[in-house]
Amino acid sequence: MTRRSFQLWSAVHSWTSLICTAFLLMLCVTGLPLIFHHEIDAALSPDTWRPADPGGPLLSYDAVLDAALANRPGEVPLYMSFDVDRPVVNVTTGPAPDAPQSQMHFASFDRTSGNLVPPPEADGGVMDVVLRLHTDMFLGLPGMLFLGAMGALFIAALVSGVVLYAPFMQKHAFGMVRTHKSRRLKWLDLHNLLGIATMAWVFVVGLTGVVNTLEAPINAAWKAQAFDDLTGGYGDAAVTGDLASLDAAISAALDAAPGMTLQFVAFPGGSFSTNRHFFVFLHGSAPLTREIITPVLIDARTGELVGLRDMPWYAKGLSLSRPLHFGDYGGLPLKILWAILTLFTIVVLGSGLYLWIARRRTGRGRNHNRVVTRLDRTAAE
After folding, report:
1. Closest among 86, 91, 96 to 61, alpha carbons compared
2. Strand 76-82's sheet: what is its strand order?
3. What secondary structure letter does DSSP report for 214?
4. Interhelix angle for 37-44 vs 126-135, to 10°?
5. Residue 104 in 3-state DSSP?
6. Which of 205, 249, 307, 359 could be stapled to 298 by a disulfide with Cβ–Cβ 3.0 to 4.6 Å?
7. Residue pair 272/226 in contact by the 8 Å Cβ criterion
């Protein structure tokens, strides 16, 4: 590597790191508890609810829907979702299919009895605050895109760091830490060692973090594509008469996508469906594929399959980036590993900031000595 190339890569590494370090430290500090989000939530707000008939037969989805409508006379169903680890069905109703969010009513029902499930004692909590700070700094889409830009700078810092590290290590043994040298050199060696040892993991987490900040535009593009592709040619004609059996519609969707499980149902007339169809959303059953979603269009009058579409590659990339980013697809051991690597990353970021400050101070000291020397020479003359 020529001297000019070294200076260029050094400038890229220094300035990209310097610009994004404060935000990356914030993301690491907030990301650390988010790795254990479910465990912390369970400890702070333990779920004391139990089904009325554990292990007993489950009510049909039609029966649960009837219970939800009986609980809200005069309203129509808008959405239905399903808890992963409890026999609970969540039903959203409203005065009309196109009701605004402010007029929607959300209620949960025990699928073993049809009884209402009490809502959580506290809505939100400290972990929701940490999550908002981590994802968008309470700024919405602009905050997400800004953090995405910081993530892109971080990736540039990683690449430039590897480029600088390669020629440096040609003269030294891997893992060298010069403990007998100055504090600055010891921290430089530790910074380099931890940085290169965690490089692959940090690159994956940084890249998936950047992808996650593009969630809103990616989902909007996918939704528009899937809707246009599946519903084109049906017009706005609403379904007449009674709706088909919800159980029949769900069964048709599951039969069309073997190996997937039920996630969400949108009823006719809402923003996630058409005026004459159920939209049944299915997702993968494995922890890593749980975010892979397949929308299935079902005729709301007959309960027959109309069509389904797999997620496009860019939406699949977003879905896979979520579990990879937080390490929540391999159980507690993987979460602990993610936490340890996050702590290493905090040390790398903090040591990088220290090295920059120390170098600035050293540079000022050298400049001061040069000025004093010149003044002494001038006085002597």
Report:
1. 91
2. 116-117, 105-110, 88-94, 76-82, 260-266, 277-284, 293-299, 305-308
3. T
4. 150
5. coil
6. 249
7. no
